[in-house]
Design a protein that fits this description.
Elements (H helix, E strand, L loop, with lengths): L1 H7 L4 H19 L15 E3 L3 E3 L4 H8 L2 E6 L6 H17 L4 E5 L11 H15 L3 E4 L2 H4 L17 H9 L4 E3 L17 H9 L14 H14 L5 E3 H4 L5 H10 L4 E3 L4 H10 L1 H10 L4 E2 L5 E3 L7 H18 L3 E4 L4 E4 L5 H10 L8
Parallel strand pairs: 1-3, 2-10, 3-4, 4-5, 5-6, 6-7, 7-8, 8-9
Antiparallel strand pairs: 11-12
C-alpha cells in the first residue's frame, strides 16, 4: 500500500520549487563576489601608481613595486635645460624598454625656450621622437606660471600663445597632456589658514616658495584661469589635471570644473590629505564625487626614487607603507589614526568597480600591453 501510494500521488510542485529556490539562492550568495575589497586584497589586486617619479636607471624599485602588484607611470619633471631633458628622457626610456609592461612614462619639453624662433618646430620634433620611442604622453610643469619669464620680466602662464601650436599638435594626434599647473591653493594663503598640515609645515620652512609672501607672482586664480583657457581653446585635448587639477581644496568646485570640461581627467597624487580633511567634514560628498567621476580619476602618489635609492633604502619601506595607507582610505571602511591630521579618518569604502577604475583601468591605456 505504501509503495502504491508513493507511486501514484501527485508531486507538490510548489514545495519542490521552494526547495529549488532555496538551494540555488544559497549557491548564488556563496559564489557571488563581494562588492568591496578589504585590506587583505591590497597585495593581490592589480594597481597602477599613475604619478610616480622614477629617476633611476635600474629596475630595483620596479621589482619591489611588482611584489605589491604595482605598475608605475612616471611623468618627467621640469627639465630645466636641454641637457637635463635629454638625460631624463634617456633614463626613463631605458627603464621603459626594460619593463614595457610594468613601466610607462610621459615626456616633457623645455618651455623656457619659448621665445626662441625655432621653439615650436624643435618642440614638436622632440615630442614626435619621444612618442615614437615609447613615451605615452607629455607633461607640463608648474614652472610655466611660477618661474619662467619673458624677455621683459613678465611671468608667463600655460595658456601663453607660444604653446598653442603644441597643444594643437597634441590634440590632433590624441597625445595625452598631463598638466601640473600652479600649486595647492594653500600656497597663496597665510600659514594659519592652510587646509593641509603638511603644506603649512613646508611653507613655514620654505618661505621662498610661499606665494602669499610674493604678491608679484601670478595669483592662484590666474593659474586656474590659464588652465581653463587651454581647455576652452582645445576641447578635444586628452587632458589630465595633476594633483586634483589644483582644486584639491574644494570638491564642489572641482565637480563644476569636471562638468564644464567633460574630457578632463584628474589624478589624486599628492593631495590625499585634502580629501581626508573634507571627508571628515562631509564623508558622503567626497565619496560620491569619486564614485560619480570614477571613469576620469587616476590613482597616483607623486612619490619617487632616484639613483641613490636601493632595495635596502628606507624610502622603499616608506612608500610601501603609504601605498597601504592609501588603500585603507580608498578601498575600506577602516577607521585609522592620521599622524598628519592628528585625528581619526574613516576609509571611503569605494565599491570594487570604482577601485578597479581609479587604480587600474583608467591608466592601463598608457601602457604597452
Amino acid at each position: 500500500m505504501y509503495t502504491k501510494y508513493i507511486a501514484h500521488r501527485r508531486p507538490n510542485i510548489f514545495g519542490l520549487l521552494f526547495i529549488f529556490l532555496c538551494i540555488t539562492s544559497s549557491y548564488s550568495c556563496c559564489d557571488e563576489p563581494t562588492e568591496y575589497y578589504t585590506a587583505a586584497d591590497y597585495k593581490s589586486t592589480p594597481k597602477i601608481d599613475a604619478h610616480f617619479h622614477y629617476k633611476s636607471d635600474n629596475t630595483c624599485f620596479l621589482d619591489f613595486a611588482q611584489n605589491d602588484n604595482f605598475k608605475l607611470l612616471s611623468p618627467d619633471p621640469d627639465p630645466g635645460s636641454i641637457n637635463i631633458l635629454n638625460n631624463n628622457s634617456a633614463i626613463t626610456n631605458k627603464i621603459y624598454h626594460k619593463r614595457p609592461k610594468q613601466f610607462s612614462y610621459f615626456t616633457t619639453f623645455c618651455a623656457a625656450d619659448f621665445e626662441k624662433p625655432d621653439f615650436t618646430k624643435k618642440t614638436i620634433s622632440h615630442i614626435e621622437k619621444e612618442i615614437s620611442s615609447g613615451a605615452a604622453g607629455v607633461k607640463i610643469w608648474k614652472n610655466i606660471g611660477m618661474s619662467i619669464q619673458d624677455k621683459n620680466g613678465n611671468y608667463i602662464l600655460p595658456d601663453h600663445p607660444a604653446f598653442d601650436t603644441i597643444y594643437n599638435y597634441l590634440e590632433r594626434n590624441n597625445i595625452p597632456l598631463m598638466a601640473h599647473i600652479g600649486e595647492p591653493r594653500d600656497c597663496w594663503l597665510p600659514v594659519e589658514k592652510m587646509e593641509a598640515p603638511n603644506n603649512a609645515n613646508y611653507y613655514k620652512h620654505h618661505p621662498q616658495y610661499h606665494m602669499f609672501l610674493h604678491p608679484e607672482m601670478p595669483s592662484y586664480e590666474k593659474q586656474i584661469s590659464a588652465r581653463n583657457n587651454i581647455l576652452k581653446k582645445h576641447p578635444g585635448l586628452h587632458f589630465i589635471g595633476a594633483h586634483l587639477a589644483s582644486e584639491e581644496w574644494n570638491i564642489e568646485k572641482l565637480e563644476k570644473t569636471m562638468n564644464e570640461f567633460p574630457r578632463m581627467k584628474i589624478d589624486l597624487s599628492g593631495r590625499i590629505l585634502n580629501l581626508q580633511v573634507q571627508s571628515i567634514k562631509n564623508y558622503d560628498k567626497v565619496r560620491n564625487f569619486i564614485i560619480n567621476y570614477a571613469d576620469r580619476i587616476l590613482y597616483g602618489t607623486d612619490y619617487g626614487v632616484n639613483m641613490k635609492d636601493s632595495t635596502k633604502n628606507d624610502q622603499y619601506k616608506w612608500i610601501k607603507e603609504q601605498w597601504e595607507k592609501d588603500w585603507l582610505y580608498y578601498a575600506t571602511d577602516s577607521v585609522f589614526e592620521s599622524s598628519d591630521l592628528n585625528c581619526a579618518v574613516k576609509g571611503l569604502h569605494l565599491p570594487k568597480k570604482v577601485i578597479d577604475k581609479i587604480y587600474y583601468n583608467n591608466a592601463i591605456l598608457y601602457f604597452n600591453q
